[in-house]
């Protein structure tokens, strides 16, 4: 690199020696790029804003299943949807909102059908060991929803409305205004659907029967209010998020339903208050959250009337400081206190956990990046074995965007309150789960021309989960929670992204593939792939825009999933194709619109993600968005 620069100066200087005039040239500044990773050694990605815009009025589960390698196990549109990262279970995905854990303290996981992507500005996925930066328990990964202000005097009104197949209607409103010191953002989302789609019942008898899905109605409302105030070097943030979802739960194809039987009502109120202060090289932060959630479930046939109310208070505080312009040290103290009232517990439960985390990240000589973290957790009154993480990233060639990375993590997960206190079957003597996680990979970025660039990344990983909690049939005709699980999960993840940008043509191509082998290592079990975890999964998308016109095509492949522990029963693999065609005209000065037509399951594929729960065939959705700026 230095030789090339020296030769360039010599070549420029030689012809100047024979000239009498002085030639003035502009100042040339040569800078070497730092390691680009936020967490050197680990994988963390942000969902492209152009993709997120296409899903703002849809469910979060649709966004993840179509545009990421995360496997979503869903009962259908509006039905409960959970995730599997890197072969781990749903309870091993940590869901956060501006860094605050929003997993249910009772279930220990999140239902992605209750979240709308448009409720946040940025969506970040932290894989494997990267998730420990955001908190414990995310053996598979962490998904963070982030809201952040735009400090400008521009006001904006964003309206979206749409309708589609099977009685589906959606609408949203976002209003932003303020100045360089104060910002307010209001978001409102409404969604409803009959979900009365036709499907082929392959298990009703010897002949396949065409039926219509019944008792699958959904109504959902979400509201988020954000307030931000900035003075000098301090920023005060206050947010409140309300969500209400009412839905009928249809039975499986094995059960003939004559009328509504199962119903579920979910309601949550989340509030956040935070203050960030910058002084010199020091950044101080303090934030707190109160979250109340209600889940009511009824089943007439089973005579179940389940009532559950949870209140959680979270407090985080700490500081971050720079050392010699290349290293950051961060100290965080966290406390989470939950109060549970449920007719499924013998008594009301209160539970508290605290943690102290010290982390350091360095980017040295523009070639080397390192990460180190250690966390101590207090589970009630019990001091757990400390968790830790260490990562290393190295630029292979000076001035080139080719990186080798590797990381090692020990992560732990505290049992959910249902695991401990559900009656009957809960086990208050459960040990916390823990996992050893290893990963190594290579990533590269290259610009071929001013218009064409590409990025690629491949990661190899292994997760060794121990004391895994499983519910199994007990001695008294009900299931019990026990620490019996040993699961080894390993695999490969690869991502390729290509961009071609000129005026007026822009093309973006994304493709990803993941191979996951997740095997139980219990002595009583034959080694085999865990249930509902596909070995092979791939997705690709192409986004083409020409002036005001655009096309967005998404293809997903989900491999075979076993539905029995001995791997004798399975759901077949399937391809899904979705296509969006749209127009984004400028209507008048600062008024613009986006009209698009979306076709889901383009080739009308019959498939299931959970056995005996059909998914809809071909469906259509048309939407109109209007943006008004002032």
Overview of the molecule:
This protein is mainly beta and 630 residues long. The protein has a single domain (44-626), classed as Maltoporin, Chain A (Beta Barrel). It has four helices and 37 strands. A hairpin with a 3-residue loop joins strand 26 and strand 27 (505-520). The protein starts with a helix and ends with a strand.
Overall average pLDDT: 89
- CATH top level class name: Mainly Beta
Q: Count of helical segments?
A: 4
Portion of residues in beta strands equals over 45%
**What's the story with the biggest beta sheet?**
22 strands, antiparallel, barrel
**Distance between the amino and carboxyl termini:** 48 Å
Going by helix content, strand content and strand pairing, the class is mainly beta
The CATH superfamily appears as: TonB-dependent receptor, beta-barrel domain
CATH architecture title: Beta Barrel
What general outline do the C-alpha atoms trace? globular
| Alpha-carbon Rg, integer | 26 Å
Number of strands: 37
Helix content: under 10%
Low-confidence stretches: 1-32
CATH topology: Maltoporin, Chain A
Domains (count): 1
Descriptors for this entry?
630 residues, mainly beta, Maltoporin, Chain A, 22-stranded antiparallel beta barrel, five-stranded mixed beta sheet, 5% helix, disordered N terminus
In summary, what is this structure?
Helix content is 5%, strand content 58%. It has 630 residues and is mainly beta. The chain has a single domain (44-626), classed as Maltoporin, Chain A (Beta Barrel).
Helix/strand layout:
Layout: H1 2-16, E1 44-46, H2 49-53, H3 60-67, E2 71-74, E3 81-84, E4 93-97, E5 100-101, E6 122-127, E7 141-146, E8 156-164, E9 168-178, E10 182-193, E11 198-201, E12 209-212, E13 218-231, E14 234-249, E15 262-279, E16 282-299, E17 304-323, E18 327-342, E19 349-364, E20 368-379, E21 382-383, E22 387-395, E23 402-413, H4 417-421, E24 433-447, E25 452-473, E26 479-501, E27 505-520, E28 536-546, E29 549-558, E30 561-562, E31 570-571, E32 574-583, E33 586-588, E34 591-600, E35 608-610, E36 613-614, E37 619-629
Parallel strand pairs: 4-7
Antiparallel strand pairs: 1-6, 2-3, 4-5, 6-7, 8-9, 8-37, 9-10, 10-13, 11-12, 13-14, 14-15, 15-16, 16-17, 17-18, 18-19, 19-20, 20-21, 20-22, 22-23, 23-24, 24-25, 25-26, 26-27, 27-28, 28-29, 29-32, 30-31, 32-34, 33-34, 34-37, 35-36
């Amino acid at each position: 690199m230095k030789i090339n620069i020296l030769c360039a100066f010599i070549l420029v200087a030689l012809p100047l020696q024979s000239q009498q005039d002085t030639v003035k040239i502009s100042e040339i500044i040569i800078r070497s790029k730092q390691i680009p990773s936020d967490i050197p050694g680990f994988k963390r990605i942000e969902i492209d804003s152009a993709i997120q815009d296409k899903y703002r009025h849809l469910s979060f589960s649709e966004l993840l299943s179509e545009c990421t390698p995360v496997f979503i196990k869903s009962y259908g549109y509006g039905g409960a949807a959970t995730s599997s990262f890197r072969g781990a279970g749903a309870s091993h995905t940590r869901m956060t909102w501006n860094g605050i854990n929003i997993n249910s303290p009772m279930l220990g996981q999140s239902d992605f059908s209750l979240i709308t992507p448009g409720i946040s500005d940025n969506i970040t996925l932290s894989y494997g060991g990267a998730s420990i930066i955001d908190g414990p328990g995310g053996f598979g990964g962490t998904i963070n929803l982030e809201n952040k202000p735009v400090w400008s005097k521009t006001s904006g009104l964003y309206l979206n409305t749409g309708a589609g197949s099977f009685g589906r209607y959606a609408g949203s409103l976002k209003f932003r205004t303020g100045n360089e010191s104060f910002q307010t953002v209001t978001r409102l989302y409404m969604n409803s659907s009959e979900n009365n789609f036709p499907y082929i019942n392959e298990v009703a008898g010897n002949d396949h029967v065409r039926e219509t899905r019944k008792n699958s109605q959904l109504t959902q409302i979400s509201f988020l209010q954000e307030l931000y105030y900035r003075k000098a070097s301090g920023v005060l943030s206050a947010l409140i998020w309300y969500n209400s979802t009412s839905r009928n739960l249809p039975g499986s194809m094995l059960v003939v339903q004559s009328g509504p039987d199962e119903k579920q009502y979910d309601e949550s109120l989340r509030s956040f208050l935070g203050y960030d202060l910058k002084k010199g090289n020091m950044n101080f932060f303090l934030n707190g959250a109160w979250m109340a959630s209600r889940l009511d479930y009824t089943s007439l046939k089973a005579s179940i009337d389940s009532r559950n109310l949870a209140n959680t208070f979270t407090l985080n505080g700490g500081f971050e400081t720079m050392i010699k312009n290349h290293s950051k040290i961060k100290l965080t103290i966290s406390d989470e206190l939950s109060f549970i009232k449920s007719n499924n517990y013998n008594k009301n439960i209160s539970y508290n956990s605290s943690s102290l985390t010290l982390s350091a990240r360095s980017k040295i000589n523009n070639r080397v990046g390192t990460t180190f973290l250690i966390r101590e957790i207090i589970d009630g009154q019990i001091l757990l074995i400390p968790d830790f993480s260490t990562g290393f990233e190295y630029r292979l060639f000076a001035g080139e965007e080719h990186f080798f990375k590797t990381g090692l993590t020990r992560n732990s997960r505290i049992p959910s309150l249902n695991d401990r206190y559900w009656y009957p079957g809960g086990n208050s003597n459960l040990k916390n789960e823990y996992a050893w996680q290893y990963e190594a990979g290579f990533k590269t970025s290259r610009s071929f021309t001013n218009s064409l660039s590409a990025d690629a990344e491949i990661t190899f990983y292994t997760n060794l989960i121990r004391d895994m909690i499983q519910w199994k049939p007990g001695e008294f005709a009900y299931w019990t929670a026990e620490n019996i699980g040993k699961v080894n999960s390993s695999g490969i993840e690869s991502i390729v992204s290509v961009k071609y940008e000129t005026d007026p043509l822009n093309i973006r191509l994304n493709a990803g593939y993941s191979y996951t082998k997740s095997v139980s290592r219990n002595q009583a079990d034959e080694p085999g792939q865990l249930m509902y975890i596909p070995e092979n999964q791939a997705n690709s998308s192409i986004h083409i825009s020409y002036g005001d016109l655009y096309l967005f095509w998404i293809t997903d492949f989900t491999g075979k999933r076993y539905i029995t522990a001995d791997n004798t029963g399975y759901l077949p693999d399937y391809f899904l194709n979705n296509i969006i065609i749209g127009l984004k005209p400028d209507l008048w000065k600062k008024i613009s619109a986006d009209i698009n037509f979306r076709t889901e399951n383009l080739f009308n594929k019959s498939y299931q993600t959970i056995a005996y729960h059909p998914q809809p065939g071909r469906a259509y959705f048309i939407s109109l968005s209007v943006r008004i700026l002032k």
